[in-house]
Amino acid sequence: MNNYDFIIIGAGCSGLSLLYEMNKSNILKNKTCAIFDKRKQFTKDKIWSYWNVFDHSFSDCLLNQWDKVIVKGNEEIVLDCKDFTYQSVNSEKFYDKILKNVADNKNIKFFLDHSVDEISEEDGQITIKCKNEIFKANLVFDSSLKNNNTNDAKIYQHFYGCEVNFKESINLSKNPTLMDFNCNQGNWTHFFYTLPLGDKQIFIETTWISDQQNFTKEQYISEINEYIQKNLNYKKEYTLGYSEMGSIPMFHFQQKNKYKKVIKIGTAANLTRKSTGYTFLNIQKFTKELVQKLIKNQIITNNQIKSKYNFLDRIFIKVLLEEKGNMYKIFLRLFKKNNTKDIVNFLSNSSNFIQDIKIILSMPKLIFIKKLLNF
To answer: pTM score, two decimals?
Structure first.
């Protein structure tokens, strides 16, 4: 029998952030923790981006940071964010930092290549079955998305991104392109996201918002190749490097947890902003608050995104479902009619009432009021 004080299910952003903060706070000095993940090793597999409006523990893991970002449609909109730089975290540096931090703690044990098959609770203790083994814990933190139901429409922000290495010099922007809508919209919403990595290197991501969870890898790569040739006007030789593919739910899960000793974390805890997919900073905020509750031996509850953002996001999704292929016009209107500070605070869940009103008033009133009245 394997008995632990804590078990963390999932060694992704939320699980590892929690492990790091728990270890740094000496919670695991005299208590044990097991962490399970289906991955076999830690390699670069993600880039997490956000505006720097909240101090967290991983500012030394940046890929880069920028004081301007660009949105493109029928015109180019430049957002000046020197007071809250746009940052991207390199998952490889993130993993390395955490693994080094916990390496000397014998109370921590990783179970890689392990998927949790079953969870049950009896007499205030959680039992986990995994690979015909049984593990027990006093408290479990679960980032898995298994058996999660929702009352929302199932819309996804799905994407494929990769590094592109050009053989010859190319006139690349020095700033990230947050959204480039100069592409085929299909029947939904489609844009490209780019991060400059050097004079001859760029990260390009093709992103769709639709009711499909993903497209084929071949379709995504074809879209990126077309973007390089048409939007970047580069028709010479290039190679594709590191890549990532994912699907972010633009809906929240029902929080009907039948186990008192299982705490949802990450996207499973509804820490993903429905309208944007932003999760990284929400995880960091939640994790720090959770660790403080552990230290003070307080009751732990799922701390979700503020209700006002969930309410506004629900209206946004309803508009999206009706507008679909025209939704890019609403995104462009948001960035064009508001100042950068208001936009960033709103998208980062840190806006005040006046900023909320400004954002709301900048939206097409007829369709948004219609959806509001149909709530």
So the answer is: 0.93
